[in-house]
Amino acid sequence: MSVFDDLIGQDRVVGLLRGAVEAASDVLAGGPGSGMTHAWLFTGPPGTGNSTAARAFAAALLCEYGGCGHCDSCHQVHIGSHPDLEIVQPQGLSYGVKQTRDLILRAAGTATTGRWRVVLFEDADRATEQAANALLKAIEEPPPRTVWLLCAPSPDDMMITIRSRCRVVTLRVPSADAVAETLVLRDGVAPETALFAARAAQGHIERARRLALDDDVRLRREAVLSLPRSLAGVADCIVAAERLVKTAEAEAASATATLDEAEAASLRQVYGEGSSGKGLGRGLVRGGAGAMKELEDRQKSRATRIKRDSLDSALLDLVAFYRDVLAVQFGAPVELATGDRRGDLEALAATSTPEETLCRIDAIVLCRERLGRNVNPQMAVEAMTLSLRSPRQATLP
Ligand SMILES: [Zn+2]
User: 316: burial class by Cβ within 10 Å (0-12, 13-18, 19+)?
Assistant: First the structure.
């Protein structure tokens, strides 16, 4: 067992990180430790697990056995309570400068275990410009033995001045086979279901897991993918838009509830009644109530993000559907993400032109951009469904 077991289809990255962990031990032993550096940028499209990789690396740096996965230190990293690990997520949709400065101050402390202090910035691309400048300063003048781990979808999402000071770790989108294999081995999913879920999730591991294990998630995907053939009239477009937004909200609510419950349960376990506090670590002296409040705040801002992300993931399912229509229109021999809708794909491929399919994909991409700029979801999605219904008209200049 090792903390790197959760990195699926990322052998090259695991090799690189293991090398860095060895170099880091060398530094602690007074050696030169070439291969270790104090700032890392983990990149990879959403769902490839860039923050999972960063967490695993953090665990390995903090563990005296190089990331065994079962010691107290590894366990504390797992539940997010290690005294030398700061994990930060944006409050709301972005990082403000105050949040970033507070963090930099906390990061400057000395490692309680005499190893490293690790700061893990999830969604670092969501830092405001001021916050990014504060972060840059911290990375330029790092306190000794502080390691910064930033996560972002791609290096281009970070300011070049930050990027150039980090070693970039690039995660690949894992193959459908690798994701399916994991679902079979770890979650006991039947091979056929696992492969369907892995293809449908297009390399997004957590989404594949939920598709494989949760009937409701599968049904919601069905609802999303039935949208293209429900757009006969203008009124249908409005109804379909409303349904899509509501479906995404339901998905977000269920994902949020699952995460919230699991976290609250492990926190209660840590602070359990009559607990001796064994395995708590010195960082958790603030008391159960404070920690629970902090957890609730974090969960609230995460709920906002999940809501936005789940609508985005519904739109990505639609993009996949139209991309598959295009593949059928061109007879391209590719693996279809929505191969389970072959009837719909072929019907639409036969009754529309590749040009129209491209216009439809553009309409969805435009909708995603609008949502990214906080346009009202119902309005943005309505504009999209109308364009999906009459693709040519919508793209006239
Ligand atoms: Zn360990």
Answer: buried
Exposed, middle or buried, 348 (CB in 10 Å: 0-12/13-18/19+)? Answer: buried
Q: Which residues contact 218 (CB under 8 A, 6 or more apart)?
A: 211
Render pLDDT for 63-103 as a digit per residue (tens, 0 to 9): 999 999 999 999 999 888 899 999 888 776 678 888 888 88
User: What is the distance in A from the centroid of ligand 1 to the CA of 140?
Assistant: 30
Separation of CA 82 and ligand 1 centre (Å): 12
Within the chain, what is the greatest distance between any pair of CA atoms?
72
Smallest CA-to-CA distance from 10 within 172, 153, 175 is with: 172
Q: Could you write out the DSSP letters of every residue in 249-280?
A: HHHHHHHHHHHHHHHHHHHHHHT-TT---TT-
With contact defined as beta carbons under 8 Å apart, do 124 and 152 qualify?
yes
Placement of tokens 């010691």 in the chain: 71
- Taking only the tens place, the pLDDT of each residue in 340-393 is 999 999 999 999 999 999 999 999 999 999 998 889 999 999 999 999 999 875
Distance 22 CA to ligand 1 centre (A): 14
User: Beta strand 85-88 with 39-43: parallel, antiparallel or unpaired?
Assistant: unpaired
| Cα(301) to centroid(ligand 1), Å | 30
Task: Decide if 227 contacts 385 (C-beta within 8 A).
Answer: yes
Tell me the C-alpha distance between 28 and 220, whole Å: 50
Distance CA 153, CA 159 (A): 13
Question: Which residues fall within 8 angstroms of residue 228, CB to CB, at 6 or more apart?
Answer: 318, 321, 322, 344, 348, 388
Report the distance separating Cα 361 and Cα 298, nearest Å. Answer: 35
- DSSP string covering 273-300, please? TT---TT--TT--S-HHHHHHHHHHHHH
- Report the separation in Å between the CA atom of 36 and the middle of ligand 1, taken as the mean of its atom positions: 19
The DSSP string of 13-81 is HHHHHHHHHHHHHHHHTTS--TT--SEEEEE-STTS-HHHHHHHHHHHHHSTTSS-SSSHHHHHHHHT-
